[in-house]
Specification:
This is Translocation/assembly module TamB. The structure is a single chain. This protein has 15 helices and 65 strands. With 1151 residues, it is mainly β. It is elongated. The two termini are 91 Å apart.
Length: 1151
């Protein structure tokens, strides 16, 4: 609103200057003045529009409409404004307004906060208070309709205002009337009169509003009651009483009177001499119904203000009594001042105590604040001892964000009123038991804080501090200096010393693990309002750490920083800047000003190995920036970076204030094999970028690298439209990605021909990326992918994939399909598996063929579906649990581990990062069928088993739901030279997709049932023997193998059984070698029913015909043939060397 009143003032003042003589045409003058008003009072966040300006150079000027708007639109509208003023009074140095009226004023809402950012000039601006060109007097004011929108005060209102003010010849007469147009009856009426001649005072103020009115709403009174406020009095100043009353809901809440009484005139006193006046005020009442319920306990049934005092004829003034009381508050005091304002005495006592309970809620804004007790005492003696003292204490303060057990402040000293009021004293303050709910803030501040020191406040001049010391846990701050007043822009001079013994206490506030100690010493002068300073800073740090792996090595040890700088009307002058650390050093100096700026800087790192283990050697940075060209409008500069060996980077640039810019860069990275071991050589890049005044950038850059790698980027970028027209052509070595995908690695070349047309987004890309003959190693899967060839075609906001490859162990695959390049990145990617040989080179070997499909939004839960058929599969239980080499490596603590070693372990995936467990991508839906009808062989621990079946994977990758199992077809387990037939064999998948095996063989005798079992995860199955009823393992084993108790066995058999128990689970290497050499599927060693040693072998003749033969040391042979007619029906035939034959029909069904 200040801008609007300023516009009305300009209407009067601007037309009285030279413009009147220079512009004769009234319309032209009006248009010129409108442009002047709109241009002067508008800025980036506020636009003022004036329409219908008439009579700009007459005694009556009018504006048809004036609007003020911001980014959300118009918030203030003034219609039909008329200014009736006296032009001749301008000659007398006054601006007299006879009448200022408006048909309508509408304030629709509060204006937005200003977003205009005025960048500071390098030069400091001298502080000055604003000055008005003329004196202003305002007469009649009237607004026919004044509208307040609901966002302004929380309630919409329409008002009418009228009034008049007359101040002339020692007499004051004023009238003001405000009425609600939208609520008849709500009104404010004021009449006030006073005459120096008659010494009569007349006052009549009345405010009335119904329930839900403007005042009760703004003050947030409970239930928004109807209000009536009156203040009325009439009489001479020597005997004047004004009765005051505040009524809500027809009940008086505050009542009382303000009185003026003339002092008795002693006999013989000149009756025309000035007379003294006694004044008093006595107001009391129950204001709790007008307060929120939570504040009522503080005030109670009566709140009272009592004031008595005297204005003496000689100019002395006394407050003899000041009492303010409520249920929780008691404040009383008195004061005396001599003529001329010199303080003689002042005394103030106060206390706050809960009426009931331990604490009371204070009636203050902001977070709810409760205290247990508070006391204040102020004493000042300006007539005799010239001393003063102040004490203040608070107990048990609590807010939602903090609690404070005790706060104390005491100050005392002397005073001097010879030239104003000057104070000199000592101050001591302490906070004890301070606890913040914010744990980071509590850690930083600590529980106890103290403040001590001396200060001097002269009547005129600067406030001085001597030895002001703030002390907390592990930190101190000491200040010696002075602070001047407003006229100097609060000019400061002094010295500030800071000590922080442990920066770790500030880790929570910083959001990272800090460490080390810092001490700083800052001295100099400054004026905040003017923006000027001249400072010297010295800082020392020891063993700093910031919880940033790349930064901490640079700031370890001892570091010192020194700065000398000044800012004034001649700009910012950095006389010197020096940073000297164990690893990092830097220097800078220069001058920044409107014209002729320059800056020189340099920095050096002693060894790059501190931040990257792959590189060793120093790194230096130098830079020169200068302001040149006409009137210092152009900036030019060069920045050079030099690294170990021949590596460097140069950047030269020119900038102009109109937006034009030219940049040239040239860089060389030598021996890039330090970062990518597979790419020996150099990487070089150079190019140019330029910008015109319209914000259009033009770029041309070339890069070359090892093995003939070349890249060229060219095109432009439009800042205004935010669009690019760039092309990138060339090739690159894929080995450059290895540091980011360790421990996996890739080797090969990719060619690309890409274009970016439109906003910088994937949807604007078009072109192709292709590769051939690429190889990728995936250690975690024990696989290599060979001969990767493919092309990715980009265009129309999508990418089309066509990729083929082969596994190192055998078999191939093809990946094809489209992927959208706009969210949610819908895709339909088909994967064709072509007899892939899958192995972990340890326990599992298989082959797989089938088709998979990944479809749906790739960033919002796609679905993986398809069918995979597995060929002959080997599960080697011995490989994972049968040797010492399979034992897990215990946790190893690495002490003083070199950075290079840690980097190697990180690339190998041997460092726990704490980020495992779920990944960061969306869960993928599963609908997979895994088929292996037979030829799934499980071997180890004496086990020979063939299985088959089908598995279904449902759910998501975050919660896999496997259904189905691989079941036993046939199998045996050898122990103590005996072959036992398996009665159970199952391989299932757990929720994390790890195989789980469960094989067992059971025997039932007259003593019970005994079972030998091999069960557990595929990477660590356990062998157990048990019986029902329960008995020792050796007896259970005897029952399984011999059908007898241990007591019935011969010593030789018992020894053999013990040896078998001790060696159970060792690797069956000999049988594996024989099986692989002969090409059969199974090989067995054991004894026959007569105890003779025998060997057996078996193999598949087709998918459902299985044959095996046995030969013993007696020369006896037997041949068996198994024909699987179905999963439940098998035909078995046999023939031996004696000519005996047999045939059998076997039916088996699991329940």
């Amino acid at each position: 609103m200040k801008r609007v009143f300023a516009i009305l003032l300009v209407l009067g003042t601007a037309v009285a200057g030279p413009m009147r003589a220079q512009v004769s045409d009234e319309d032209e003058a009006g248009g010129l003045l409108v442009r002047f008003l709109e241009g002067t009072f508008s800025d980036e966040s506020r636009q003022i529009e004036v329409s219908g300006l008439e009579g700009a150079f007459s005694s009556q000027a009018s504006i048809k409409k004036l609007t003020v708007s911001d980014a959300d639109g118009v918030w203030l509208t003034i219609s039909g404004a008329v200014l009736d003023w006296n032009r001749l009074d301008l000659v007398r140095g006054k601006f007299t307004v006879n009448a200022l009226t408006a048909e309508e004023i509408v304030i629709a809402r509060k204006p937005l906060p200003s977003t205009a950012v005025d960048l500071p000039n390098p030069e400091a601006q001298p502080f000055a208070l604003p000055e008005l060109p003329v004196a202003v007097e305002l007469g009649e004011i009237g607004v026919k309709r004044f509208e307040l929108g609901e966002p302004v005060l929380g309630l919409a209102a329409e008002l009418r205002m009228s009034g008049a003010l007359s101040l002339a010849d020692g007499a004051l007469e004023t009238e003001l009337s405000v009425t609600r147009l939208d609520r008849p009856g709500d009104a404010l009426d004021l009449m006030a009169q006073f005459s120096n001649t008659t010494r009569q005072i007349a006052l009549d103020l009345k405010l009335i509003e119904d329930a839900g009115g403007l005042i009760s709403t703004v003050l947030k009174m409970p239930d928004r009651p109807p209000l009536l406020f009156t203040a009325k009095g009439d009489g001479p100043i020597s005997d004047f009483t004004a009765d005051i009353a505040l009524v809500s809901d027809d009940a008086e809440r505050i009542g009382g009177a303000v009185r003026l009484r003339g002092l008795e005139v002693p006999e013989g006193t000149d009756p025309t001499a000035p007379q003294g006046t006694r004044f008093s005020a006595d107001l009391a009442g129950d204001i709790t119904p007008m307060l929120p319920p939570e504040y009522r306990a503080f005030f109670g049934a009566e709140t009272r203000l009592a004031l008595n005092g005297v204005n003496h004829p000689d100019g002395r003034m006394e407050i003899e009594q000041l009492d303010l009381s409520s249920d929780a508050l008691l404040l009383n005091g008195k004061m005396a001042m001599a003529a001329g304002g010199k303080l003689e005495t002042a005394l103030l006592h106060g206390r706050i105590a809960p009426p009931s309970g331990e604490t009371v809620l204070l009636p203050i804004s902001g977070p709810q604040t409760r205290i247990g007790a508070a006391q204040i005492t102020l004493r000042m003696d300006g007539s005799e001892t010239q001393d003063w003292d102040l004490t203040l204490s608070t107990d048990r303060l609590s807010r939602p964000d903090l609690t404070l057990r005790r706060a104390d402040l005491s100050a005392s000293g002397t005073m001097d009123q010879s030239a104003g009021l000057a104070l000199d004293g000592d101050i001591t303050a302490g906070l004890r038991g301070l606890e913040f709910t914010d744990t980071a803030l509590a850690q930083a501040v600590g529980k106890d804080v103290t403040l001590d020191g001396h200060f001097t406040l002269p009547g005129t001049g600067a406030l001085a501090f001597q030895g002001i010391e703030l002390t907390g846990t592990d930190y101190t701050a000491t200040l010696d200096g002075s602070l001047d007043g407003l006229q100097s822009g609060f000019e400061m001079e002094g010295r500030l010393r800071l000590e922080a013994a442990d920066l770790g206490r500030f880790s929570g506030l910083a959001g990272r693990d800090l460490g080390g100690a810092v001490s700083a010493d800052l001295s100099g002068t400054g004026a905040p309002l003017a923006g000027s300073f001249d400072i010297t800073l010295a800082m020392q740090a020891q063993d700093l750490s910031a919880g940033i792996e790349q930064l901490d090595p640079l700031i370890a040890g001892t570091s010192t920083l020194a700065l000398e700088a000044a800012r004034g009307t001649d700009g910012l002058n950095i006389r010197s800047f020096t940073l000297d650390g164990t690893a990092l050093s830097a220097q800078a100096k220069g001058v920044l000003k409107s014209t002729g700026s320059s800056l020189r800087f340099s920095a050096a790192l002693d060894d790059l190995k501190r931040i990257t283990p792959e590189v060793s050697g120093p790194l230096t940075l130098t830079g020169d920036l200068d302001q040149t060209g006409p009137a210092g409008r152009e900036w030019t500069g060069k920045i050079t970076l030099k690294g170990p060996d021949k590596s460097y980077a140069d950047l030269s640039s020119t900038f102009d204030p109109d937006g034009q810019a030219d940049l040239t860069f040239d860089a060389l990275l030598d021996r890039i094999q330090r970062f990518v071991p597979d790419l020996p050589g150099q990487l070089a890049a150079k190019g140019k970028a330029s910008r015109d005044t319209a914000g259009l950038w033009t770029l041309a850059a070339d890069a070359t690298g090892p093995a003939g790698v070349t890249t060229r980027i060219a095109g432009g970028f439009d800042e205004t439209a935010g669009t690019a027209d760039l092309t990138a052509r060339g090739d690159l070595r894929l080995e450059a990605a290895n540091p980011f995908m360790a421990p996996n690695s890739i080797a090969g070349r990719a060619e690309f021909d890409l274009a970016l047309n439109g906003p910088p987004a994937l949807s604007s890309l078009s072109g192709t990326v292709s590769t051939s003959g690429t190889r990728m190693a995936i250690p975690a899967a024990a696989q290599t992918i060979e001969n990767i060839s493919g092309r990715v075609t980009l265009g129309n906001s999508s990418a089309a994939l066509a990729i083929t490859g082969a596994l190192g162990a055998g078999g191939g695959f093809r990946v094809s399909g489209p992927v959208a390049l706009i969210p949610p990145y819908d895709g339909r990617i088909a994967v064709d598996l072509q007899n892939l040989i899958l192995t972990d080179n340890k326990s599992v070997t298989s082959s797989a063929s089938g088709q998979l499909l990944l479809s749906g939004p790739l960033t919002a839960g796609p679905t993986l579906s398809g069918r995979v058929v597995f060929g002959e599969t080997e599960l080697n239980l011995n490989a994972v649990s049968g040797s010492a080499a399979a034992a897990p490596i215990p946790q190893i603590a690495h002490v003083n581990e070199p950075a290079a070693v840690r980097a190697t372990r990180a690339r190998a995936g041997l460092i726990e990062t704490g980020n495992g467990g779920g990944g960061g991508g969306p869960a993928i839906g599963l609908d997979l069928t895994l088929v292996a009808l037979n030829r799934v062989f499980a071997r180890g621990f004496g086990l020979q088993a063939e299985l088959g079946g089908t598995l279904y994977l449902r759910g998501t990758t975050a919660a896999v739901e496997p259904v189905g199992q691989i079941e036993l077809i046939r199998g045996t387990i050898d122990i103590i030279g005996r072959r036992l037939k398996l009665t159970k064999g199952v391989v299932t998948m757990q929720g994390d997709l790890s195989p789980y095996v469960d094989f067992s063989s059971s025997t039932t005798t007259e003593d019970g049932k005994a079972t030998i079992e091999i069960a557990g995860p595929m990477d660590g199955p356990k062998v157990s023997v048990y019986a029902e009823p329960e008995r020792p393992a050796e007896e259970a084993l005897a029952m399984v193998v011999f059908g007898s108790r241990v007591a019935d066995l011969s010593p030789f058999v018992i020894a053999k059984m013990a040896a078998s128990l001790a060696t159970l689970g060792r690797s069956g290497g000999a049988k594996d070698k024989l099986r692989k050499a002969t090409g059969v599927d199974t090989v067995d060693f054991g004894t026959d029913d007569s105890g003779a040693a025998q060997v057996g072998a078996g193999t598949y003749l087709s998918d459902n015909i299985y044959t095996d033969f046995n030969i013993n040391t007696q020369g006896e042979t037997e041949l068996n043939l198994n024909l699987d007619l179905s999963k439940s029906l098998t035909v078995k035939g046999s023939v031996d060397n004696s000519g005996s034959t047999g045939i059998g029909l076997f039916y088996e069904r699991d329940y």
